[in-house]
Specification:
By secondary structure, the chain is mainly α. Helices cover 83% and strands 0% of the residues.
Length: 620
């Protein structure tokens, strides 16, 4: 039985712990309300002014919304919505984000966390737009943009915290803390770190929870913010209570109590007194616990708070039950039960009815015991059903948030894609321009070079043609010259043979008429001397002939190496187109002898009957 009581106490204490974190999470959204002074009247007066600018009107409506946030949440929501409409119409991006932040917090106060997340996410969308417009850290709105983003992220974390999505809460708190680092810490960062610690506490990760709470405490001390220091000390005491380190819990609870008493913050003292009473009850120091319970009782009428009032009576019942005053304990538990009905706190109705069931059973008042047993059973079944519905709601909230986050990510990706496309188009345009310029320039250079090359080639061709013409003319002239020389030489040979024939005729005449021999021989000698110079005629002829037909004799010898000089001479004269009679005259032979020589030559050259000798030799 004692074990079950302990579990119920832990649940109750964790619920109060959650409530405190919730309250201080909201304080982050504006200035510290413990130091704030209401400006409602002056703000309303400013709105009535006809000279107020659009920008100033939007900011005044937002300020008024925050000022009425806890006093009149409906009016706060109305003013924040007006501010949003004006800001959207006039494209005041940061004021739109501020307006959605205020609207989201109104929904948190209404405990409508699903709509709160949707509104806060909308604020983050405008922050993303503001990032594109405000990137310079020297811009006067840069710090304001960071503060708004930090506030929105923290409030989304608070929504996840209160819907028991602690990992998601931590994720958003860490994002907010990253921005807080850029803003040089301060009391805002202390509250964010404390919220992270509270989330780890709900996940039963007490070491991490204490780590972040002590980080929060250090920053709060640096900022010299006593109220945040006290809040963090209270949270540390709560964690140690849940870890069953009662002495440490008492120590830190006492430190926070001391600060609240010095600051005269009685509203918070009622909760701290109840915490300390719980520590003392756990240590069975009932008289000391009763002192703090009485202190709580004195504060409740001045600062009525639903949870604290119910818990006071529940704790008082525990105190009386522990001292054996069951009758008095029943009275306190009944008060706690009635207050739970009044404030619609099903959990405390369950706790109180369970205690009453046991006490009436001990008093043997079984009708009452059975009555509260049925109530506790119905409440237990109802709470399980409520928890199931709550989980479904949480899943729906998570889906909507995921959908919103996807929209934000898609917007970011789209912006990045658009920027990349623009950059690619610019690069592509530059590449096209440079390529076109290069192509045109290359074409002009090639065209110029081609034109110049064509001109040069034409000039070279003309020069070469002229050169060839000159050479051809020279060669033609040379051939003609040499041909004339050959012909002349052939005629000389013919003349020589003619001379020889004359000599022969002279000798025949001398023989016939031997008279005057001396004169006849002198005449014959002169004829012979004239012909002596022509002894080398063939060699000279051959030299001239080879200059024109340099491979002629070699080609003939390749056909038949056994060709004689007489054969070669005959071939050379045929090459010169001399007929049989002319050839006979040159060679000093009869035409019949030439015919016979030509016949033998055909055989040596292996010509057929149909082959023409002259044509064959001309082709060599």
């Amino acid at each position: 039985m004692a074990t079950k009581h302990f579990i119920i106490d832990r649940l109750r204490y964790r619920n109060l712990f959650l409530k405190r974190v919730y309250f201080f999470g909201i304080l982050l959204l504006i200035v510290n309300p413990l130091h704030a002074i209401s400006e409602k009247d002056s703000l309303l007066s400013l709105l009535k002014s006809e000279t107020i600018s659009t920008d100033a009107r939007a900011k005044t409506l937002i300020h008024l919304s925050w000022d009425l946030m806890y006093e009149n949440t409906d009016s706060a929501f109305y003013y924040a919505r007006q501010a949003a409409e004006i800001s959207i119409q006039h494209k005041l991006v940061l004021d739109v984000a501020d307006s959605y932040n205020a609207l989201g917090v109104c929904q948190i106060v209404f405990s409508d966390y699903e709509n709160a997340i949707v509104l806060l996410d909308s604020g983050l969308l405008y922050i993303e737009r503001a990032k594109l417009l405000i990137q310079d850290s020297l811009n006067k709105d840069f710090s304001r943009r960071l503060n708004r983003e930090m506030s929105l992220l923290t409030n989304i974390g608070n929504c996840y915290y209160h819907t028991a999505h602690y990992q998601d809460a931590i994720r958003y708190y860490l994002l907010a803390n990253k921005i807080a680092d850029q803003q040089r810490g301060g009391w805002r960062q202390a509250i964010i770190l404390s919220s992270i610690g509270s989330s780890y506490n709900e996940l039963m990760k007490f070491d991490l929870s204490l780590k972040y709470q002590f980080l929060s405490l250090d920053i709060a001390k640096q900022a010299q913010d006593s109220s945040v220091i006290a809040n963090t000390l209270t949270n540390i005491g709560t964690i140690y209570f849940l870890m069953d380190s009662i002495e440490k819990s008492k120590h830190y609870t006492f430190l926070s109590m001391d600060i609240y008493e010095k600051l005269h913050l009685d509203y918070f003292l009622s909760t701290v007194y109840l915490n300390q009473a719980q520590n003392l009850i756990r240590q069975r120091k009932y008289d000391s616990a009763n002192i703090y319970l009485d202190k709580t009782l004195r504060l409740l009428p001045e600062y009525p708070e639903k949870e604290s009032e119910i818990f006071y009576n529940y704790q008082k019942g525990q105190y009386e039950q522990s001292n054996g005053n069951n009758s008095s304990a029943i009275n306190y538990y009944q008060k706690a039960y009635l207050l739970s009905m009044k404030y619609e706190s099903d959990k405390y109705k369950l706790f109180s009815s369970y205690r009453l069931e046991n006490l009436y059973a001990l008093a043997k008042q079984f009708d009452s015991a059975y009555h509260y047993l049925k109530i506790s059973k119905q409440l237990s079944d109802s709470l399980f059903s409520i928890e199931s519905d709550k989980k479904l709601t949480e899943m729906e909230v998570k889906y909507q948030v995921s959908k919103r986050e996807t929209a934000i990510n898609n917007l970011k990706k789209q912006q990045e894609r658009d920027q990349q496309i623009r950059l690619l188009l610019i690069i592509l345009l530059l590449v096209i321009i440079l390529s076109s310029t290069g192509i045109i320039s290359s074409y002009m250079v090639r065209r110029k070079k081609t034109k110049q090359l064509h001109k040069t080639e034409k000039k070279l061709m003309a020069t070469e043609l002229l050169k060839n013409q000159v050479e051809q003319q020279k060669l033609t002239e040379d051939i003609e010259h040499k041909t004339k020389q050959l012909t002349t030489h052939a005629l000389n040979m013919m003349q020589k043979n003619k001379l020889l024939q004359e000599v022969n005729d002279s000798i025949v005449a001398i023989v016939k008429k031997p008279d005057n021999l001396e004169e006849s021989f002198r005449k014959l000698k002169r004829q012979i001397n004239r012909s002596i110079k022509a002894d080398d005629d063939w060699e000279v002829f051959k030299m001239y002939f080879e200059q024109i037909n340099n491979t002629f004799f070699d080609s003939l010898k390749e056909i038949n190496p056994k060709l004689t000089n007489h054969d070669l001479r005959l071939c050379a004269l045929i090459k010169l187109n001399l007929n049989i009679k002319e050839t006979a005259a040159v060679l000093n032979l009869s035409p019949n002898s030439i015919k016979s020589a030509r016949y033998k030559l055909r055989k040596k050259l292996e010509l057929k009957t149909a082959d023409d000798l002259s044509e064959f030799i001309q082709n060599i």
